[in-house]
Fold this sequence. Notes:
single chain, 163 residues, Nucleotidyltransferase, domain 5, 2 domains, 5-stranded mixed β-sheet
Amino acid sequence: xxxxxxxxxxxxxxxxxxxxxxxxxxxxxxxxxxxxxxxxxxxxxxxxxxxxxxxxxxxxxxxxxxxxxxxxxxxxxxxxxxxxxxxxxxxxxxxxxxxxxxxxxxxxxxxxxxxxxxxxxxxxxxxxxxxxxxxxxxxxxxxxxxxxxxxxxxxxxxxxxxx
Length: 163
């Protein structure tokens, strides 16, 4: 059974009804759908993978500050508070250039000064970025800044977490 009117676009054969639109405008949008799905999947995988990449390292709880001034990245020293089992008091450790230096130990601090001096020879204008845990006493930070200025560091930036 076919439509009897002129211009009718439907027909019936058996139990199927077919509709043939006069306009082909909708077919262009349908052909782009698989490519759009592909691009969206790539975008999703990219976003998920970028947030799941773990940076190896130590978690430092930087203190909050309402300002965001600072220097460019240079030499980085990380200062962490630890419990010293020998004396039963909190102590501090400085990590610099993949080495660990115990604050308060004169030989270790001399080694820190030597390592910092060697790096200053390669990068004479580089600032020292000091990432100190918020539990580190001010005297320890001043001691490290004093060592840094003694080997020729011109700028020291004490890192904070901006609000």
